[in-house]
Amino acid sequence: MILTTCAACAKPLEHDASARCVGCQTRYCSDRCLRYHAHRGGHDDECEDIANGGGAEQYHADEKYEEAVTDAVEKCAEDTAGQTCYICLEDGSEEGLVRGCSCRGTAGFAHVSCLARQAKILVAEAEERDLDNDAFNARWGRWSKCGLCEQRYHGVMRCALGWACWKTYVGRPEMDTCRQLAMLQVGNGLYEAGHFEDALSVREAELAMLRRVGVSEESTFDTQGNLANSYQMLGRLDEALRIRRDVYSGRLRLSGEEHGETLRVANNYAMNLLGLERFEEAKSLLRKTLPVARRVLGENDELILILRWNYAMLYEDPAATHDDLREAVETLEDAGQIAQRVLGDAHPITGGIGGDLRRARAALYARGLP
What sections of the chain are H helices per DSSP? Predict the structure, then answer.
């Protein structure tokens, strides 16, 4: 999805592949593919348009952005009908409006282009003023988090904003922090929208890039964890688990058990164990992690809700007792109420907890228990 394959035969490209069109910088796995695509594959007809659009990477990013915005607008159409953008105060008659956060009522509707412009300006100011990491990160957060409700965007909305971010910074060198973070954003967006194969491709390219530029071990943990997420969603659970085990032990060693990222990767590790039906290992890890997370994050944090949700899923263990099932139902009821209050009914976490609550209740009643 970010041009990691040959334009002619779709073979994976090495980073230093030398075969490329001199006019628009489209890359190929070999000179043979370059010649074929130029003379018989139709590339000559579009080369000038790609070159005028800023070159292959920029042209591709712009196209994917337009597709993602169209998809997001269509899927948000029922919710956004008759609303106006809270940034520019215009309606959705031209670009269309989206909303994919935890805002409710008439709040949170926006054009993707307005959200992208807002984030771009904030980051540019941070760079110009050479702000410290905390201030920069707060501004960078506008690429993934609503400025009104302060909750993360999700679904197709996150995907559209991810492509907006990537097209903004794709022209910068690999060593540039914003370009590196933009690759993370587009990978997150593809994953959130359910495009797991495409997200995997981005994650693999991102990890290779980070290793190529020589970042620290700690700096690759997030990307490795995200790579494992894609593996897991594609059913490659054993591959995912190997990565998660290494990332979790590395986070513990470098950051300690109370660090937010350690808690996050512990949750993902437990979720992977649940997927493999290794219930006792998952239970042990969750019982160790939950008290720490509660102490550090409080009851209303999104990660706490997910940790409690995963803990309740232990009821799927064939050895689960009556008390285990009852505890699962009570946990999901409480977490669901908090999710509704904090994240809203439309959030995927709220919906997911609600679905598993219905299944947990059915499992409890199937045993003839009140």
Answer: 31-39, 43-52, 56-80, 112-128, 133-140, 155-169, 177-192, 196-213, 221-233, 237-255, 260-275, 279-297, 302-312, 322-342, 348-366
